[in-house]
Design brief:
Length: 337
């Protein structure tokens, strides 16, 4: 059974999904440079480490009225075949694995025969938990001729209007600070960045290096394993393979809590294991200077596998060396039934 890796996000209370493999990163909404002769739904450009990224307001793209931007909005940067493109979203929710059979085709509507039909941006509909999620077609989003032409507008003078004129002075300063930060250090290749999956455990954010992550999945039909220590939660069937699920809370000195609903699937030697987490929030890429050394008190509390910290969502995220954490002796089960 084929599965899809989806990034789920909200936009003004409506839930959407994107192919997570086409998402380059997500950033907090910066100040955008408006441009002339652009469609109204392309609200500006910004420089992301030397790369010009046109930004689309999906709300306007679907013909809705103008929305007010806030400092909590984010930009999902999509990696198209010709150029990158950003989408403004209200909140990134999680990254999930979904069976392709769970996706239904979108409804089709008839249009007047006097002109060509508009490009359909909706690729399908799917139910995720209790929510109905609209899946977007990234190929059509990133191949619109109007968007491709905007990359050539890097040197074009900006119009006189300002980005987000209704923002307060403090909000404008924050938008501008973000834009300047993204312009500062030019990173030639994505491999020079630290790719992290942002997960939540016990109300705290942890970053797990993407190089150690195989996929994300829901925890379903978990079967207990006899004669195992408490951190071994059980085993589950992952597309025909048996996946052992581990609770990392004790290893990170976190208090016990209800079993998480998501699992980070990682490779441990020749075997895959699952790490139970409360939620998977985001996938992002950080420059080396954005990662700070962990405070001694944090390493003493959570262990030597803590490699650093970085700001995320107005809080500090703890970066974990997952392979080193999984290699702890106390995690190795060597008992006979």
């Amino acid at each position: 059974m084929d599965s899809l890796s989806l990034l789920i996000f909200d936009l003004d209370g409506v839930r959407f999904g994107l192919d997570a493999t086409k998402v380059r990163e997500s950033v907090w909404l910066p100040e955008l440079t408006p441009i002339e002769e652009a469609p109204p739904w392309v609200v500006g450009l910004f420089s992301l480490r030397g790369r010009i990224v046109p930004v689309v307001d999906l709300h306007l793209r679907f013909g809705h009225p103008t929305r007010l931007y806030t400092t909590s909005d984010q930009v999902v940067v999509l990696e198209g075949e010709q150029q990158a493109m950003g989408l403004i979203v209200s909140e990134i929710r999680e990254v999930i694995e979904l069976s392709s059979e769970a996706v239904q085709p979108p409804p089709q509507f008839e249009f007047a025969a006097s002109g060509p039909p508009p490009p359909y941006l909706v690729a399908g509909e799917a139910r995720v938990g209790d929510d109905l999620v609209t899946l977007l077609d990234i190929f059509r989003l990133t191949h619109l001729p109007e968007v491709a032409a905007l990359v050539e507008a890097e040197e074009r003078p900006a119009p006189s209007s300002h980005f987000c004129p209704e923002a307060t002075h403090e909000e404008r300063l924050l938008f501008r600070k973000r834009a300047m930060m993204f312009r500062e250090a030019v990173v030639e290749e994505k491999d020079a960045l630290l790719g992290l999956a942002v997960v939540e455990l016990g109300g705290e954010y942890f970053g797990v290096e993407l190089a150690a992550v195989q996929e994300f999945c829901d925890i379903i039909q978990l079967c207990p394993i006899p004669c195992c220590p408490p951190h071994i939660l059980g085993a589950m069937n992952l597309r025909g393979d048996l996946l052992t699920l581990i609770d990392p809370r004790a290893a990170l000195n976190l208090p016990p809590a209800a079993r998480g609903g998501k699992a980070v699937v990682a490779r441990l030697g020749e075997q895959s294991v699952g790490i139970a987490v409360d939620a998977v929030h985001n996938v992002l890429y950080l420059r080396g200077e954005e990662v700070q050394p962990p405070p001694p008190a944090l390493r003493e509390r959570c262990g030597a596998e803590i490699t650093g910290t970085a700001p995320y969502a107005d809080r500090m995220m703890t970066i974990v060396d997952l392979p080193a954490l999984l290699a702890r002796e106390e995690w190795i089960v060597n008992e006979s039934v």
